[in-house]
Amino acid sequence: MPAGGFSVASSGTEFEAKITPIVIISCIMAATGGLMFGYDVGVSGGVTSMPAFLKKFFPVVYRKTTTEHLDSNYCKYDNQGLQLFTSSLYLAGLTATFFASYTTRRLGRRLTMLIAGIFFIIGTIFNAAAHNLAMLIIGRILLGCGVGFANQAVPVFLSEIAPTRIRGGLNILFQLNVTIGILFANLVNYGTAKIEGGWGWRLSLGLAGIPACLLTLGALLVVDTPNSLIERGHLEEGKAVLRKIRGTDNIEPEFNELVEASRIAKEVKHPFRNLLRRRNRPQLIIAVALQIFQQFTGINAIMFYAPVLFNTLGFGGDASLYSAVITGAVNVLSTIVSIYSVDKVGRRMLLLEAGVQMFLSQVVIAIVLGLKLSDNSENLGKGWAVLVVVMVCTFVSSFAWSWGPLGWLIPSETFPLETRSAGQSITVCVNLLFTFVIAQAFLSMLCHFKFGIFLFFSGWVLIMSFFVLFLLPETKNIPIEEMTERVWKQHWLWKRFMDDDDEKNSEKKTNGAY
Predict the structure, then answer these.
(1) Burial classification of residue 502, based on how many CB atoms lie within 10 Å of its CB (0-12 exposed, 13-18 middle, 19 or more buried)
(2) pTM of the prediction?
(3) What is the predicted pLDDT for the residue at 10?
């Protein structure tokens, strides 16, 4: 998951730690950052399918959707301005990530979450009060800055404050909250679309203020992580917080390991340069590939634009929002499946099983739409429409227990300590960059590819499944410090990058010389 600074992974030794109330409260408060992100992802698709919203900000699209046979079903929503409304958030998030990496290290995780909360609140005010497109886009950009800061600080806060034995589950808590945020947004849109007078979209955008205020309040109430305090030189305060969150006085072993990890992390003067060293390339290649593949499953295309997509397929306005709520609920439930199965079944098995499920469901959707939905037909037919929703749910469920959480989890556990901060920054940047690309291009692609858009994404699912099969090693239950010996040096391809002890020695000298 996105990170800044350093964190201590589970070593072979299990430190004494109770699951204290302060840890539970801190994690719930921090995870509202995921709720905010999910709400922003889910709300945009709903409001862009509301006639009153389109009439005010995108009159061209409004005319296309209300005039019969004016344009192909697939091209009704093809508008760069409309796509920019959705995608500007991710471009802003991408830019903010670079600043967030610095603040997470220098100011701490808690303050970075507070900055994110403030950006979210201001952005929500701009959006809910928008009178023109400029105000709307500025609001989305401010929300994007909040996303950049929250996605950087929250997951690393969660992983640092949680006891080792529940760290994996708590990391996925962030992803679970993202899916709950999407579902909440879909439910809100379903309700506000029924409001007479055409101001429902303002309420949809304004309700983002709830998770925004929760995150801001949470950031004011929680303590910073011991890792962050030690990293910034506050050793005694770090020790006191560690004692408080672990609920025991026997904290010396963990405290000493944190101090040592901080010392090692400070010795690395050029983490980004270190990432390009030969022995760090496998982790970098896998982290970048996972982010690109995560977006090219087509999931965000479905999540951003679910109501618009179902409208395009001939569902009525009400039915399309209703279908989006169903897919949102499936998303939440399937992410819970991941929390329980990821450390039992393993990462590779979940990804490979999901690959088969996603591939088949997308091919079925493409065949149904190709045969049954012509460019100007108004209705898919009830039976076929139900089949499309079922297939979309099948696709969403398999994504939510595989590529959704694991696209973040695997990079967070494969980078060695000295490059973890830099590696996570690149992971977040690549993810947001490709999220922006898909958000900006999807409606135009839908217009040009028509039902073939699902074949396009299913082709990518096939490619990524082969990547997992041959190039992704299993990292289940392996301490991070032992990854090199037990994972990379045992892999048929990546072991070739690990046999450079001479380079290791020269790196130590080089790092010492800087």
Answers:
(1) exposed
(2) 0.83
(3) 41
